[in-house]
Specification:
8-stranded mixed β-sheet, 45% helix, 2 domains, Spore Coat Polysaccharide Biosynthesis Protein SpsA, Chain A, 15 helices, two-stranded antiparallel ribbon, alpha/beta
């Protein structure tokens, strides 16, 4: 067996856990499943794939549950996944090589996760890189909720890339989504009381309020986090800037959104942020500026949300040229969008 243990915590995940474990089986990892109080078939399904199923009394602390799962592993190298994350691609030889490198012993392996999302009624994929593989002799989890991997001394660990890709199903009903968000809000606010002002907690509060459809508070906490001037190279800080901008767009606070231009140099290495700035200019009616940003986005290769450097940018350029009564240019950009439904519809209406 590969000297890696997969560690999972679960509660009422019988709609996800079978697919998750089925895809892991060919890798021959040791698998630890820690149940925190399921009343469905979660543990029954888990036992079909592993004999190492444990119970943990839930105590409103995700790190405590994660660290308990890690303690049950036979291997020091642990890979942390959730029940709704399904393995898509892996190179096991390269994974073994990575963990055998002495320089990685106290670092965290970064995996790729593909997250489906919908925007303007169109289903797309957002990619993100997250730290999930580490040696428990050097690292553990900290934080009551939205737990993070830290060194045992509480420091940010170094990272290395791991050839592992997961698809994050993540679907829950609207009622479950609100229930989880309400629970998470209480835990996040308690974590904030314990730690004091913290950009990562502010970021998570912003994401949580989006789940609760409270964009005013989502924008408020995102701005608090941005004002703390956390490392702009951190993925969550980049995401927080984008969350803040899109919340302000939805709230029609375009003048406030323009303040993000002050952080352009910090975040414009990503097509996501450049596209966002194009959207803000567009909403302000500053069409030439918007066209410049969308055009720039199409030249960039670093992005998280699909389409921001291709069909979405081209579509908005088409919309702008329609507004400017240049229908030939509008059509030319709509044609660049391929089978993007909104662009196809505009071409049909302009023909």
């Amino acid at each position: 067996m590969i000297p890696i243990t997969v560690c999972m915590i679960a509660k009422n995940e019988d709609n996800h856990i079978e697919e998750c474990l089925k895809r892991l089986r060919p890798c021959k990892f040791e698998i630890i499943v820690v149940d925190t109080g399921s009343v469905d078939r979660t543990t029954e399904i888990a036992r079909k794939y592993t004999d190492k199923v444990f119970h943990f009394d839930w105590c409103d602390d995700f790190s405590a549950a994660r660290n308990f799962s890690i303690e049950q592993a036979s291997n020091d190298w642990v890979l942390i996944i959730d029940c709704d994350e399904y393995l898509e691609n892996v190179n096991l030889a390269d994974v073994e090589n990575a963990i055998s490198e002495e320089e990685n012993i106290d670092s965290v392996g970064i995996i790729l996760r593909n997250n489906p999302y919908s925007i303007q009624g169109v289903r797309s994929i957002m990619t993100e890189y997250i730290g999930r593989l580490f040696n428990r002799a050097h690292c553990h989890y900290e934080g009551i909720i939205h737990e993070q991997v830290k060194t045992l001394a509480g420091k940010e660990p170094k990272t290395f890339q791991v050839p592992l890709t997961f698809y994050h199903e993540g679907y829950v009903s609207e009622s479950d989504k609100r229930m989880r968000a309400t629970r998470n809000l209480e835990m996040l606010l308690r974590d904030l009381d314990l730690k004091g002002p913290n950009p990562y907690i502010y970021f998570q509060l912003g994401q949580n309020y989006i789940s609760l459809n409270d964009l005013e508070k989502a924008a408020y906490y995102s701005k608090l986090g941005l004002d703390m001037n956390a490392d702009p190279h951190s993925a969550f800080v980049q995401s927080m800037a984008e969350t803040y901008g899109y919340c302000l767009i939805e709230l029609a606070k375009y003048d406030s959104a323009m303040a993000l231009l002050e952080k352009y140099e910090l975040f414009s290495n990503s097509a996501d942020f450049v596209y966002l700035i194009g959207m803000i200019y567009m909403k302000k009616g500053m069409f030439e500026n918007a066209l410049e940003e969308f055009e720039k986005a199409t030249t960039m290769t670093t992005y998280s949300r699909t389409g921001v450097n291709s069909y979405r940018a081209y579509y908005n350029m088409g919309v702008i040229y329609e507004q400017m009564y240049d229908l030939d240019k509008a059509k030319s950009f709509y044609k660049k969008c391929g089978d993007f439904d909104a662009a196809v519809k505009r071409l049909e209406e302009l023909s």
